[in-house]
Amino acid sequence: MQKKNLNWDPERAQVAELAEGVYARCEIDNMGWIDAGGFTVVVDTLEQPASFSEVRREIVRTAGEQPVRYVLNTHTHPDHVALNEDFRREGAEIINGRTAPPPAEGLNVEGDKRAVRLIPMGGCHTNYDCIVWLPGEKVMFVGDLFGWGLIPWMGNLTEDRRTLLLDTYSRLLEYAPETVVPGHGPLCSGDELRRWRDYFLWLIETVKRKLMEGYRPDQINSSVIPPPEDMRDWWRFVEWKHEDSIRKVAKATGRQWR
Ligand SMILES: [Zn+2]
Fold this sequence. Notes:
The chain is α/β, with parallel strands linked by helices. The protein has one domain (14-254): Ribonuclease Z/Hydroxyacylglutathione hydrolase-like (Metallo-beta-lactamase, Chain A). The chain contains 5 helices and 11 strands. It has a 6-stranded mixed sheet. A 5-stranded mixed sheet has the order 7-8-9-10-11, with no helix packed on it. Strand 5, helix 2 (84-89) and strand 6 (93-95) form a beta-alpha-beta unit. It starts with 13 loop residues before the first strand and ends with a helix. The relative contact order is 0.12. The structure holds zinc ion.
């Protein structure tokens, strides 16, 4: 098991040990589990209910036979909750921002070995996003707040949404995470979160400049604003995410945000 999953392969589920007792199962959809000491905490539960027996076996193999006492969901999109019901039937408590919101300051789950925190960070991908933070190990499960270059909000960008996104990224970076588990794609670190924040700011400024030079919003695309060199190898970034971000920012900036 390796920390950064450099041989990450979307076709094959791999379990990585991020710190002693902290695991991520990486595929296109990611999940994790933590040996809290006396019980296990699961973070997100994939999209296919059929994965349950394989996932359950891996949890026992790595974290031991102890019960799964909590399932924490970063949000409740269908590709993050499929196994919730199986774990609930085993006696786990399901906690997420939609069905059992944690308090604003976060919820602490404490075992004999370590604390696991569920912290509300809503409004950037869904209205009830949360992150899972391990203060001792500096591991952060960010769900779909980080999408390897994707603007996490699926609807139109507004000024409020832009401000919230930037504030949320400042909050994420304040924790100084060393290992970041995104909801999808390879593992990364706080460096990639910072890089995306800087990219987003750069894109806004660059789009504004192009509009001032006389481009119409619908004329601005990746041939007008090529993707930054250092992000070309980001997961699916040049294929469509950069184009999608330009389109969203150009549309918002073209109508002066609001
Ligand atoms: Zn999602």
